Amino acid sequence: MKIAIVGVGYVGLVSGACFADFGHDVCCIDVDVSKVEALKNGIIPIFEPGLDNLVAKNVASGRLRFATDLSQNIQDAEAIFIAVGTPSRRGDGFADLSYVYAAARDIAASMADRFCVVVNKSTVPVGTGDEVERIIREARPGLDFAVVSNPEFLREGAAIDDFTRPDRIVVGAEVQKARDVMAEVYRPLYLNSSPILYTSRRTAELTKYAANAFLATKITFINEMADICEAVGADVQDVARGMGLDNRIGSKFLHAGPGYGGSCFPKDTLALIKTAQDCGVPSRIVETVAAVNDQRKRGMARRVIAACGGSVRGKTIAVLGLTFKPNTDDMRDAPSLSLIAALQDGGAIVRAFDPEGVKQAAQMLKDVTYAPDVYECVRDAEVAVIVTEWNQFRALDFERMKAIMVNPILVDLRNVYRPDEVRSRGFTYYDVGRGQQAV
Could you confirm whether 116 is annotated as catalytic? Predict the structure, then answer.
């Protein structure tokens, strides 16, 4: 099957590589000439485990190629995926759909005069598919096509596995012909018994936002439980375990920490809030989740300040982990951004280390010194702070750290370690929701 993907960002590149690996003929198209040339030369612009090998394999096989000219590369496509960015719009937080609509206009100008499915893979608010259809139909009256919503549910750091072994595939289509095309697109996954849920287009669009808002709510809920645990002397990890064993709740996303970040949850909760408000049915739960999460990320700095005796002015703070989660280089809305800003506002000198995120972080943070490894990061530091739970932070050499730090203090915002283990090594240890806290 011939597939075109417009937009070679995170979703577009992962989707294109995986579709090609299914055996489809895939062309990924982007207006960014430098990005396309880099991909042609085997340079992957994002960090995602296994993606470089998957791209190289399918480029070598001839099933995956990259181009900048949309008009010459969608003529034979049976399915054209829109996978451009939908960042939060300045001012109101609503999804900026300008890239989606621009892609729709370009597709309309170049589509072949035969049935084709245009698929919104980008995360878009309810009703976006209607507008995409209107744009194309207005430009090409009488053209035989259908617009489908096929939201992505990829976790950064595990995207390839999520794409090839999905929990579900949601397809929002209004006509049977479109459903048939999408069934053929995903036919290779039938062997894995991956469930395909066919819905209306608007239902599919809302499903993506609802899923992310619910997961964001679980994270925010357990963070509030962590605060209560600290106040009453309970252990949030045991609370989460006790909750998660209930099949109606489940254990995933019940890990207390510094709040959620990344490319999806912050943006999608804001877009859902705006959609609900515009419809006259405001979502008070989601509004509260977004507000509480924003406050929590910056509030983590107060734990570090308290661990330093109430002031960080002139003190070196070692930040271990910058990306919003491990196994990605994504810095969008990462908790580290708010944490570092608050520490710097308090007069701290910040040194940081991250296995993959330094290049992105350097574009977003000022006056931060980046260390080449963990131990250079903590050298002469007043306190070390685990912000992202990279695997290499799970077996730190505490004896070595103790010898080179000003004070052996560890603030573990991800509850990576057992308190008694770290304290037995001579460290003062603070975590989230377990035992005695700094604040």
Answer: no
